[in-house]
Each structure stands twice: as C-alpha cells, then as structure tokens.
C-alpha cells in the first residue's frame, strides 16, 4: 500500500461512525490475497460479498460437529441441528424486525423468494387485466417472475419511470398506479444506479388503494437497517450471499396474514402435516413453503453473517458506505469524459456505482483493472431494460462493502487513469 | 510499445492489446453503406452487450463488398474490422475456411502451417483471456452463420461461452 492510500484509509476510519477497517479486513481471509501479483481490491460486492471467518467457521463447524437433518430425528444431533437452523431464522427475524419468526421463509435466493410470491400469491389474486406496478430500475429477478405471472393470468405490467438522475419519478405515480393495480414490486436499492427508493412512501400510497407491496431487498438489506414493520411491507426478498452469508440461501419475508392464505409452490417432505394416498395437508408456517431438506449449513452460516452485521452495526455500515460512495463520486467527477449513473448525492444512494469511461469500453476496462488486482463488474448487471433506458449496452460498476476503504477507491481511480494511458498509447 | 504506466512486464496484457489491435479499434474498417446488400446478419453477445451488423454484397460466389459495424469492446471492434479488411474479394469457401481456422486458433488449436491469418495473428493473445474469446469471435461466428445460410427465428448470431 502506498503512503497516500494509507493516509486516506486512516482518514476514513476517524469519521463520524465506528468501523475499524483494519479489524474488519482481518476478519475476511480473502482480503489480502494476490491477483496477478497485486493485492486484491474487491469491488464487486453487489454481485456477491466476501465471507468473514465467522461465517466460514459456522459452516465448517456444523459439518464437523452437528451435521444431521432437521425437524426429523429424535436423537440429540438432529435436535441440535434443528436448534441451529431455527436459531438462524430467529436472528433473521430480529434483523429485519419481523413480528414473528414464522414470517421468515428460507429458500435459495431473493430470486426464488420473488418467484414464490409470483407463483403462489399471483394466480390466486390476479385476474386478467389486473395490474402489477414495477419500476424501470428493476433487476431481472424482479421482472421475469412477473412476466411469467402476466402470461399465466393475463395481468398487465406497468412501470414507474425514473428521472435522468436515476431517482424514481414519484410524480408519475397517479398515472401509473391505477384502480386495477394489485401489487407493487419494487427494489429497495438499485443494483446499477445505487438509488435507494422511498419504500415507506410507496407502501403508504399502495396500501391506501388496497394494493400489496413486495420489496426486492437483495441490494438494500446488506447495506442499511431495514424494519419490515415500520415500512409495513407485505413481502420482502433477500439473498444471504450479498450480505456476508453463503450462496444458496435466500429469504422471503411475508406478513403472516398473506402467507397463511397462500398455497405452497413446492411439494415434498417437511412441508406436509400428513400425507395419505388420497392427498395431503400442509404443515404450518414457515415450513409449508420449505419443501425438502433445506440448505441447513448455509442457513446456519447465514445466521452467523447476520450476527456479524449486527456486531458492526447497520448504521455504522451505512455511514461507512456513504463516506466511500461520496469519496468515489468526488474522485470520478474529476475525470473528464466520464459518465456516472445514478444520484450524485451519496445520502440518496448505496455504495454501488455504475459508470462509463467514454474512452474505454467497460470490458476492456475490467480486463485491464483485473491485471492490477482490481475486481469490478462490466456488463448489463441483469438489468437490461434499465441499461436500454440509459442508452447503454454495458457499463462498468464498482460496489463497496464493509471491507473496502478509501484506499480501494484510490487504487480504482489510479488504475482507471493508467488504463486510459495504456489504451490511448500512440 | 509504451506500457510503462500499467503493470510492468505484463506481457499477457500487452499481447491482448497489441498495437495492431488498437489501430483497428481506433479506425475500424468496413464502416460504410453498400450500394446493394445481398445478405445481412446481426451478431450479439448477450453477456457483454456487444452488437455487430454484417452486410454482404456478392458477385456470384465471390464477396464483392461488405460493411461491418460493431458496437463493443476493443477486441470485438478490432476483430470485426479485420474481417472487413480480409474477406472482401474472397469466395464463400475461402471466407468460411478463414473463419473456421480463426475459430480453431481461438479455441487453442495451432494455426495450420502456411495459412496466412494476416492481422488476426495479433489477436492470438486473446487465448490467454478465456472470457474474452467470444469478443474476438463475434464477427467470425456471425459470418459463419451468414455464409452457411443459417436462418433462425431472429436472424441473430449469439456468442456465449
């Protein structure tokens, strides 16, 4: 690390919040590894986050000491595995302040959670001509499940537009939200623009008109405190792997009153109360929606990730990322011929920044930066309609998390400037 | 080549972005309007978002003229430009042979002896970057589909690894 970068990192650690960057980094074994002879600077946490040792340990320890199937055995091992698995559910419920633990459904990822609502709640509640209101900034995971549902039911999909600065055009609400709108499905935080949407406002408007709201919190939940009761959302989806947990685990939060009325989408073991040759009755919540042996070790690892996030403090994490985003935006704006997408006010956005160097295609940039150990994303970020709206086919994207510091921003900017020299050489 | 400002001795990166490649990228050949178009095919790399449009004008079995327009990274633009420069005047079979040979080289096979790949030699370094091979092949896969009369629903050649 060069002296300038060290100074910048120290500066960031002495701001108006408490996050000991050096200690956090020490908790992540992958931080510090070498890539192409340089120390890894991981700036793709919006795709998936790195994992602290506590999460890795929780998974390894489960397999070493406690492995058994859950909800089945009468023996001690199975009871312990069940306690750990259900304990993680309680942690997640507290994390988002759910009223009840049985409102937390474990699945594979946020995508599966959204699909569960689309496939279970959807056909039972939507008729042909009913409307689903989405936004122009949705990830494919909050678009395609509704396309499938629309095809199945004849429902109509409408979109809340965005402003040029990447914020939602709430003034279009009255026009886009109609008497036929039954559901608003919207992202908490855009994975491209970084925009944090006014969820409480949206929920208030939707509820006053009798519509439900599903929030895609895959990008939001890792980075700021979310209180499902205060927001009064009906459904909320999260992915563990974007919030320091393992891949293969996601959460659907749903209000009990909705989940109780919904039919399971997957049938099998664990989700039934009794099965006869003539049919079956369903288990109670949450297991009604968790058919088959779940990702037990993954869920337990996710519980450890939630513990870790709580120990850092979600407000500290948020302040840290506002600082990083603000610093990155400030430095990027000093580069000429550089386009930044999304709000320029760090208080209005998350630490995920899509940008384009008009002199270098994002794929060339990502390749050259990788040779310096800097991992950024290049592409459409699974939000093709949004990219089309922005008039782009691809952008570069840097995203920050708890283990990133201002020194990483410095490395990114220096690498971009070097890449320009390299590609612009005579 | 002046590469002091990036990782010193990063020979693989130098080999990816050779001067010949950057020259084609900066001044792509084949960006023109044909007086007559006999065959058009679009190429698309959905992972990257790269788009390519290939228009061919034939004189019997011979490619009399062509136009290539690529929107994408340096590798895909350069490769499309090289295609534009190389296949004009070739018979369909000659162009197919060149495309097949270049595809094989990109997939790690040695170039056949006495076969002249021309400027395409400068794309050899792409082999060391497996995720970028599809960028180098976009134009050539589109050409292969066009010349072999492939007609799928959307008329678009899609390259994915």
Question: Overview of this structure, please?
Answer:
Chain A is an alpha/beta fold and 426 residues long. Chain A contains 15 helices and 17 strands. Chain A is globular and about 75 Å long. The two termini of chain A are 30 Å apart. The relative contact order of chain A is 0.17. Chain B is an alpha+beta fold. Chain B has a single domain (11-152), classed as Sufe protein. Chain: A (Alpha-Beta Complex). Chain B has a 4-stranded mixed beta sheet with strand order 3-2-1-4, covered by helices on one side. In chain B, β1 and β2 form a beta hairpin. Chain B is globular. Classes of the chains: A alpha/beta (426), B alpha+beta (161).
Give me the secondary-structure topology.
The complex is a heterodimer of chains A (426) and B (161).
Chain A: H1 3-13, H2 21-27, E1 34-35, E2 38-39, E3 41-42, H3 53-66, H4 76-95, E4 104-107, H5 110-125, E5 131-135, H6 144-153, E6 156-160, H7 173-176, E7 181-187, H8 199-208, E8 212-216, H9 228-231, E9 235-239, E10 250-254, H10 256-261, E11 272-276, E12 279-282, H11 296-312, H12 314-333, E13 338-340, E14 352-357, H13 362-370, E15 374-375, E16 377-379, H14 384-389, E17 395-399, H15 406-423
Parallel strand pairs in A: 3-15, 5-6, 5-7, 7-8, 8-9
Antiparallel strand pairs in A: 1-2, 4-10, 9-10, 11-12, 13-14, 14-17, 16-17
Helix pairs in contact in A: 1-15, 3-11, 4-11, 5-6, 12-15
Chain B: H1 11-16, H2 19-26, E1 39-45, E2 50-59, E3 62-71, H3 74-86, H4 92-106, H5 133-147, E4 156-158
Parallel strand pairs in B: 1-4
Antiparallel strand pairs in B: 1-2, 2-3
Helix pairs in contact in B: 2-3, 3-5, 4-5
